[in-house]
Amino acid sequence: MSTLKSIETERLILNKWTLSDEDIDGLYAFASNPNVGPNAGWKPHESREESREIIENVFLPYHVWSIRDKATGRVIGNIGLEPDRRREDVNSMEVGYSLAEDCWGKGYMTEACNAVVDFAFREFGLVVIGICTGPENVRSQRVIEKCGFVFEGRQRKGYHIFDGTDRDNMVYSMTREEWEAK
User: Are 175 and 128 in contact (CB under 8 A)?
Assistant: First the structure.
């Protein structure tokens, strides 16, 4: 993949993940919380080694940033772009993210998501960006709506999650024209 740029917002710094102890510890600190991963469909991390493997095998091959609080330098989440599985022949990507529980409700993810959406439309010339969340994840739905994504519908049994079940997806998108009009 191309070189991933750091992105700076008012309160956040988004950096490419590394296999440094600081990044591994930062991911493990929030990803081991049982209230974080299941909202996004993945199991809580059980060890630092598991967090290292996720960085190496899931984050580094794609466009995934660590989210750091600019004031403290602490890793508080992650956000990334991956191929859009619902639009195979369209120049599109899908956004995914997670955030430390103590940072929920403070506008951090909306700030990070807006920055990544701007980056993606500018850098990759996308036609559309997709994003999905589970029906029960109302907090994520609120972030998605505040960022200007449009609800497309509910995809029944569209995501196989870590516990072996299949859950519905709330599917949203933003077209280039909608982004330009913001």
Answer: yes
In the chain, what is the greatest distance between 2 CA atoms, to the nearest angstrom?
44
Q: What is the pLDDT of residues 58-92, one digit of tens each?
A: 999 999 999 999 999 999 999 999 999 899 899 99
Q: Residue 179 in 3-state DSSP?
A: helix
Two structure tokens written together for 67: 């989210």
Q: How far apart are CA 43 and CA 34, in angstroms?
A: 8
Three-state secondary structure call for residue 100:
coil
Which domains, ranges and CATH numbers included, belong to the chain? 7-181 (3.40.630.30)
- Using alpha carbons, select from 141, 120, 158, 16 the residue that is nearest to residue 78: 16
Question: What percentage of the chain reaches a pLDDT higher than 90?
Answer: 89
By CB neighbour count within 10 A (0-12 exposed, 13-18 middle, 19+ buried), where does 19 fall? exposed
> Which sign, positive or negative, has the C-alpha torsion 142, 147, 151, 152?
negative
